[in-house]
Design goal:
By secondary structure, the chain is α/β, with parallel strands linked by helices. It has one domain: Rossmann fold, CATH 3.40.50. It contains 12 helices and 7 strands. It has a 5-stranded parallel sheet with strand order 2-1-3-4-5, with helices on both faces. Strands 6-7 form a two-stranded parallel ribbon. It binds 2-acetamido-2-deoxy-beta-D-glucopyranose. The site of 2-acetamido-2-deoxy-beta-D-glucopyranose has 4 residues, from loops.
């Protein structure tokens, strides 16, 4: 299949690049970028929320059940996130630690850190509602990380890690789904378009902050087709059989804004490599024709169908009817893609992000 063929070719290109980049094929140096630094929400949280008093946690079964040790890590998935798969492809054999975890210390910090927190957003108020780590605090932690890194690596090496690292930014879904659409103080006074502009203004200044702190390679995810999430179908899709088109239209409007804001940033900030990863289209295509992509079910989550009532939106050990094989499902729970769907997203991330690492 096309996507798979592409991936093989890209992996091969990466392998060549790794050899020329590191000179010696040493295990510890065999990564295409020295570090990965991640900011965002549940799409990229690998366990920070485990250490917070929030209900948005994934540190219990059946989360993580398709890992070899079947351990729930805090990832909102049965297995790997798209960004985990990307890290694998870039040659990482261990992942940069969740910043709030005990592992985030000493030499472990040399390969980066993850500051993401489920239910966080561009809008700090989104995170306040759920006791998640707001974007401004994720940035504050990153500054703290920089000084810890300098202490471990020395300031010259730390500066080069910071400059060569790949930065991943993934916010926005929680701003709309967990804040805007359900918060009358927002949706009565602002149109989705106005709220999107508000978020994109925050995005622009966030990227400028990262740039001023030394970041030069940044990948940003677009919004997924939010109207196709099992949760939004249940909550907002009463009159439609398929995806909630109004919500998908809002997501596409937001994606246009973040794309043009990114083009401006690229012009304004010398030496910055920045790319928007479009996750709308690849996910929408899979949902529109699951069987051609090897899936059986695209309308409900494997765990926590989201069909009956609000409480059943969440996946937990008692969720009734959890499917036996998540590989056949596009969605693992009522909001998050399965590892199998994440593989497809990671394939397209790689293609869209190749300029960041060349
Ligand atoms: C799960 O489903 C996938 C895709 O249909 C299939 O390849 C795999 O063999 C299944 N696994 C099990 C344990 O049935």
């Amino acid at each position: 299949m096309g996507a798979y063929f592409c991936r093989e070719v890209l992996v091969f290109i990466f392998a060549l690049a790794i050899v020329s980049y590191t000179g010696v094929a040493q295990d510890t140096a065999a990564t295409l970028v020295p570090a990965i630094i991640t900011f965002g929400d549940s799409a990229v949280d690998i366990g920070n929320n485990d250490y917070l008093p929030t209900i948005f946690k994934a540190d219990y079964p059946p989360y993580g059940r398709d890992f070899a040790n079947q351990k729930a890590t805090g990832r909102f998935c049965n297995g790997k996130l798209a960004t985990d798969i990307t890290a694998d492809t870039l040659g990482f054999t261990t992942y940069p630690p969740a910043y709030l975890s005990p592992q985030a210390s000493g030499k472990n910090l040399l390969i980066g850190a993850n500051f993401a927190s489920a239910a966080s957003g561009f809008d700090d108020k989104t995170a306040f509602l759920s006791h998640a780590i707001p974007l401004t605090q994720q940035l504050a932690y990153y500054k703290e990380y920089q000084s810890k890194l300098a202490a471990v690596a020395g300031s010259t090496k730390a500066a080069s890690i910071i400059k060569e690292a790949l930065y991943l930014v993934s916010f926005g879904s929680s701003d709309f789904v967990q804040n805007y659409y359900v918060n009358p103080y927002l949706n009565k006074f602002y149109t989705p378009d106005q709220y999107g502009s508000y978020l994109v203004d925050i995005y622009q200044s966030f990227i400028k902050d990262l740039y001023n702190l030394g970041a030069r390679r940044i990948g940003v995810t677009s919004l997924p087709p939010l109207g196709c999430l099992p949760a939004t179908r249940t909550l907002f899709g009463f009159h439609e059989p398929g995806c909630v088109s109004r919500i998908n239209t809002d997501a596409q409007g937001f994606n246009k804004k973040i794309n043009s804001a990114t083009k401006q940033l690229e012009k304004q900030l010398p030496d910055l490599k920045i790319a928007v990863f479009d996750i709308f289209k690849p996910l929408y295509d899979v949902i529109a024709s699951p069987s051609t992509n090897g899936f059986v079910e695209a309308t409900r989550g494997c765990c926590g169908t989201g069909r009956i009532e609000l409480t059943s939106l969440l996946c937990n050990p008692k969720s009734i009817g959890t499917c036996s094989n998540a590989t056949e499902y596009v969605f693992w729970d009522s909001v998050h893609p399965s590892e199998a769907a994440n593989q497809i997203l990671a394939d397209s991330l790689l293609i869209e992000g190749i300029n960041l690492i060349s």
